[in-house]
Amino acid sequence: MVILNYRSPYLKRILSINKKKNDGTLSHIKLPNILPEIFQIILRYIYGGKVSLAEYDASDIIKILDAANKLSLQEIIPYLQSFLIKNKSNWMEQNFNLIYQTSFENNSFLELQKYCIELMSKQARKIFNSSDFTSISEKCLISLIQQNNLQISEVQVWEYVLKWGLAQNPGLSSDPSNYSDDDFNALKNTLQQCIPFIKFMEFTSKEFYNKAYRFKKIIPKELCDNLVECFMNNDYKPIRKSGSQIIKKITSKNIDSKIVTIQHAELISKWIDRLEIADKIKNSYEFKLILRGSRDGFTAEKFHEICDNQFHTLIIIKVKDSDEILGGIRVLEVIF
């Protein structure tokens, strides 16, 4: 009992509040979703100080990692992550969704988070081809298709996004010729957050007609109309107020940010005007950088010095060691 109290803060807390029965034995305690066989492995580690991972499958090691975190065994977590990355990379690539969700559940699994981010940025094809690709979350998919070096064509990105969207709607076939309006609306609602990040302008006219135009009802109408005109007329120059891909050619040079992309700027512009994702842009806003943490510092004093009394202020923060972006907007002046 002394060893359990010493090695695991969680068990120490549970055992300290657990009352003894009349015969002197402890009553049963409930562990947080830990399988008995996994807890046996943890107990051998607690009492023996060692754990041999070579005999376990990757899925079991994930469970051991999760149990170690729940029991506050922080000293073994880096070792478990390192073992997975060095010895089970093929399995993790095929089960990327599980690894992604596990790693970002809390900040204890920073090495796995780093692994996921690097895989998305450098070897995205492996994720697209993984056995559980269609099970990844919308957030994960958007993070993936935003990567700049996917090493696959944009039409392939579109096909993977469609594959994911159809998997979320099992009743829909890959052939939209027989879709009802309800079918199109279901797929449109599923993919509405993803479509702004598809670079349709990098399609060939043949690719657009064969792969995307069949699904024109899920693409914002103004964007679709401009794309059709563009692909039919070689002299056509995309107008400013259209889809994200067309705006990019005009306004990306005006966004001085290491976090915000042109696609983000388009979405933010719609949110400012309280528009839905599929609505056309009503106003093209200029984004002027006034403070950058890596340049100006991250102190509260510097923030107030630069940002106080500023109107229409947008604050964007990127979470360290992750691809998560947080933010907010204040229309009135910043006064604290």
TrEMBL record:
Residues annotated as domain TLDc: 258-336
Matches recorded under Pfam families: BACK (PF07707), BTB (PF00651), TLD (PF07534)
PROSITE patterns according to UniProt: BTB (PS50097), TLDC (PS51886)
Gene3D superfamilies tied to this protein: 1.25.40.420, Potassium Channel Kv1.1, Chain A
Residue ranges of every copy of the BTB domain listed in the record: 1-55
One annotated Gene Ontology cellular component of this protein: cytosol
PANTHER family, alphabetized: AXUNDEAD, ISOFORM F, BTB/POZ DOMAIN-CONTAINING
Protein name: BTB domain-containing protein
